[in-house]
Design brief:
This protein has about 375 residues and is an alpha/beta fold. It has twelve helices and 21 strands. Bound molecules: pyridoxal-5'-phosphate (PLP). This is Alanine racemase.
Length: about 375
């Protein structure tokens, strides 16, 4: 293990991930839970997350890029692995060699792949992506017959078919219903029961458990984050946030009334104030837009004051405190909790972005077998399906 001489760290509670996974496994019945671990498991650290989900029954992983898939294979992960995004021609034989399933994103992609498969290697495993309304990647609905025909005429191992919802996290979305209908029409034409069908992301798995099909693709909520405030409010389970972010005060001093601090001298003390400097800044993912955001000190909220620097920022204390005092940036202290959602709101973005932009400089420390006592496991008396 590498040493860290700076107290700033992200603590990842793997038990929380396990508990969130259990919720989706119970809710989805016999369907597979495909753990989506793209982007370094949404910034949580892919190898540790993968180890946890495999120990707890996951049999298939999804990543975004060919490189992410290869990284897992090179680290000895041998379960089913699906690349959700595009793969280039050079990767086709590599996918065959490493048993990596790739996504057929268009008719053009299918022709390209057919030309690059190597006959002496294992048959290329593909999932066909259908664009039912996201308009990102996938064969168009009216191209599906042609895609089925092309796949049947060529040497592919046709393992799965899927689509992706654009608005599953919204209330009463007409587009969502259109996408469901389009997919149903396509599935009526698919008379191959060995092909795995999957449509749901976290939001759809939570809000529309009737759509589970053969598998669900769970990303954000595996990490204990609600896909949107609407889903967070509606859901029948308290997700358990896996990531917390903490540091310690490295310097404490009195700012005299009228004195200013940090770049631009934009913050000025109205009276004598105790100010602590903490070693975290925008190069860690503590973006400048978080100026004014609260942090937790001794179970109380105190604000970040002045501009956030690259490596450090300042907070205003209610009293003088010693160097080394703990500061919770995300997570819980006493009765107070700062969720990733609060940062997202402050930054006018979605929670997905927050853990993804916590940079490599922040070490991830893993809690295994830790009890998750902060939140009750069950949110309400609503029965799980
Ligand atoms: C990222 C991704 C998911 C996971 O979505 P969440 O909202 O994080 O659960 C599922 N499917 C596809 C195609 C994705 O790109």
């Amino acid at each position: 293990m590498t040493e860290n001489y700076r107290p700033t760290k992200a603590v990842i509670n793997l038990t929380a991930i396990k508990n969130n996974l259990t919720y989706f496994q119970e809710k989805s019945g016999d369907a597979e839970v495909i753990a989506v671990v793209k982007a370094d498991a949404y910034g949580h650290g892919v190898l540790e997350v993968v180890e946890t989900v495999i120990e707890n029954g996951v049999r298939m992983l999804a990543v975004a890029t060919p490189d992410e898939a290869l990284f897992l294979r090179k680290h000895g992960i041998d379960i089913e692995l699906l690349v959700l995004g595009a793969t280039p021609s050079q990767f086709i034989p590599i996918a065959q060699k490493h048993n990596i399933t790739v996504t057929a994103i268009s008719l053009d992609w299918l022709s390209m792949a057919a030309m690059h498969v190597e006959q002496e290697l294992a048959t290329l495993k593909i999932h066909l992506k259908v664009d039912t309304g996201m308009r990102r990647i996938g064969v168009q609905v009216d191209e599906v017959d042609e895609a089925f025909g092309f796949i049947a005429d060529h040497d592919f191992d046709f393992k799965g078919i899927f689509t992706h919802f654009a608005t599953a996290d919204e209330k009463d979305s007409p587009l969502f219903n259109q996408q469901v209908n389009a997919m149903n029409t396509i599935l009526d034409k698919l008379n191959n029961s060995t092909v795995m069908v999957h449509v749901s992301n976290s939001a759809a798995a939570i809000m529309h458990p009737n759509l589970v099909c053969d598998a669900v693709r769970i990303g954000i909520s595996l990490y204990g984050i609600a896909p949107s405030p609407y889903v967070g409010e509606e859901m029948d389970f308290n997700l358990q946030p896996a990531l917390s972010l903490e540091t310690e005060m490295i310097h404490v001093k009195k700012l005299k009334a009228g004195e200013a601090l940090s770049y631009g001298a934009t913050y000025r003390a109205e009276q004598d104030e105790w100010i602590a400097t903490i070693p975290i800044g925008y190069a860690d993912g503590m973006l400048r837009g978080l100026q004014g955001q609260d942090v937790l000190v001794k179970g109380q909220r105190v604000p970040i004051v002045g501009r956030i620097c690259m490596d450090q920022c300042m907070i205003r204390l209610a009293e003088r405190l010693p160097i080394g005092e703990k500061v919770q940036l995300i997570g819980r202290q006493g009765d107070q909790q700062i969720l990733i959602d609060e940062w997202a709101k402050k930054l006018d973005t979605i929670p997905y972005e927050i853990p993804c932009v916590l940079t490599k400089r922040v070490p991830r420390i893993y809690l295994r077998g830790a009890e998750f006592s902060d939140l009750s496991f069950q949110k309400s008396d609503k029965m799980l399906r």
